[in-house]
Structure formats: C-alpha cells, structure tokens
Specification:
Blueprint: E1 13-21, E2 28-36, E3 44-48, E4 55-59, E5 62-64, H1 78-92, H2 96-113, H3 122-131, H4 140-155, H5 162-192
Antiparallel strand pairs: 1-2, 2-3, 3-4, 4-5
The chain binds zinc ion.
Zinc ion binds next to loops.
Length: 193
C-alpha cells in the first residue's frame, strides 16, 4: 500500500464533502478535496484519502476501489494471514465461490495450527474446532450450514451467492477474532501492566 501525503497532490479543488471507507488503507474517512469531472457535476469526482493519500474515484454512489469486506487483522499465523486478506478481497470483487473455498482453507489451516492432523476431510477440521473449544458451542447451527455450503461450492457447478459467502466470511472473522486478535490484545495489555 502506498503512503502518500494528501496535500502533495497538485491543484486540488474543493468538492462537496463526503464520507467513505478507503479501498486502499481501509480508513473510515471523508474529504472535500480532490478533482472535478467537468463543471457542476457531482456524479463523478476523484477524492484523495486524507489517511493514505491515495485517490478514490466517485462513480455515482460508489467509491472505487471499494473497500474490502470484514475487519482487517494483523498478527495471524502465516498460513492464515495472506489467505484471509485474499478472502476479503475476493468478496470485494464479487468472487463469492472463491470466498467460500478460501474460507474453507482458512478453517482447515486454523485447525492444523491448533494441532489437527493435516490432510483430513473438511468436516473433520470443523469437528476438531468445535470439540476443542475454538468455536462457541452455540454457533453449531451456523457451522452445519457452513459444512453443507462448503460442500456444494466444491462439488456443484452453480456459482455461490453473496449471502452464502458473507455467512462463512463472517464466521471465519469471528473465529480469528476470538482466537487470535482478542488473545494477543489481551496478552499485550497484560504485558504492559
Ligand atoms: Zn486511504
């Protein structure tokens, strides 16, 4: 990701102020500076992100690039970090079957990270996460959906839809938050005391 200074862009003009989530750095931000398209046209413009200085294109009600879905997380295990970002980016571009397949791989990698045997069937990894307390017991209904959806994404010809992809990505995000982010934040705050 580039880190530019928003003020260094030349000949910036005043634009109608808007709020947006930057597709580059993920900042929830807003600005009123950038570039017009023609005169008195609020449909198209270029806004500069005050946080990272990168330009976003306002196309009607959309800002492009769109922001990734889900919460950015750092400090994940190597086998999880890059594919988690890949899942969020796939969601952003509407590659929903891809989201589901990547999320299955994340779930398998997390199970292996916590000691499950490598090279098993997907359902075995899910069972491992549930049986060893890495997934809240009460999310069992979700888990059953993810089991069956994952199978149809792998074996059926039909493309998966947004809702299915969102469900499994939300679930993966929750799993990573409680097992990695929360734990490491907790440890860090303990160390600081
Ligand atoms: Zn930015």
């Amino acid at each position: 990701m580039s880190n530019l200074e928003a003020d260094v862009w030349r000949d910036l003009v005043k634009l109608p102020p808007i709020n947006f989530t930057c597709g580059y750095c993920g900042a929830k931000t807003g600005n009123n500076r950038g570039y017009h398209y023609g005169y008195s046209n609020n449909e198209y413009a270029i806004y500069i992100c005050p946080s990272c200085g990168c330009p976003s294109f306002k196309d009607g009600d959309l800002m492009k690039p769109e922001s990734s879905y889900g919460e950015p997380m750092n400090g994940l295990p190597d086998t999880v970090q890059s594919i988690y970002d890949e899942a969020r980016n796939s969601f952003k571009v509407g590659a929903y079957t891809g989201v589901i397949l990547i999320c299955r791989k994340i779930l398998a990698n997390v199970a292996v990270y916590y000691g499950a045997k490598d090279g098993q069937q997907f359902v075995k990894y899910i069972d491992y996460l549930v049986e060893n307390g890495y997934v809240p017991e009460k999310s069992r209904e979700w888990i059953d959906k993810i089991r069956t959806e994952g199978n149809s994404a792998t074996h059926n010809q039909t493309a998966k839809n947004k809702d299915d992809a969102q469900r499994i990505l939300d679930f993966v995000q929750m799993l990573l938050l409680i097992n990695f982010k929360f734990n490491s934040d907790y440890n860090n705050s303990e160390n600081n005391n």
